Amino acid sequence: MKQIELLIEKFELVPHPEGGYFKETYRSEGEVSPESLPKEYQGSRNYATSIYFLLTSDTYSAFHKIKQDEIWHFYSGSPLMLYVISEEGELSEHCIGNDFEKGQIPQFVVPGNHWFAAKTINPDDYSFVGCTVSPGFDFKDFVLPERKQLLEKFPEHATIIKSFTRL
Ligand code: GUN
């Protein structure tokens, strides 16, 4: 699709390990010191960061988790479905998009330490969104689990886990 190539080129998007493409658009200069962060963070973090994230219908964003809440913002393209599993094993689905009459929402917060995955709903399409976190993103806080590991934790969600894991 021409629009996908255009977005990748225009916004200098690169492949993300979870699937899709991204580009960091903001990283605050200020930092939070390790003493001011919860114990599970190692080292300091920027106050906040933001990315563009592009997902296409030929792939998906695999289940992963980070420590902090992540705010998703819808920009353009197909609505996107977010699948979220809490540590207690509660699964929820959230449709991010701009057809508000159909119940889609333009912004959604994935709570920290929850496993989440995403897919573009329409075939042959893309979803262009933004993701903002505070404290700022660091790959040290990013966990991309193996399928086996998630299946052991949440056997009741085997179908969705198998659909959204590659490792
Ligand atoms: N920077 C690199 N990857 C990510 C991500 O998955 N989320 C956010 N918010 N920032 C990132």
UniProtKB/TrEMBL annotation:
Signal peptide: none annotated. PANTHER family: DUF985 DOMAIN-CONTAINING PROTEIN (PTHR33387:SF3), RMLC-LIKE JELLY ROLL FOLD PROTEIN (PTHR33387). InterPro entries: Cupin_DUF985, RmlC-like_jellyroll, RmlC_Cupin_sf, YML079W-like. It comes from Flagellimonas algicola. Residues 7-144 form the DUF985 domain. This is Cupin domain-containing protein.
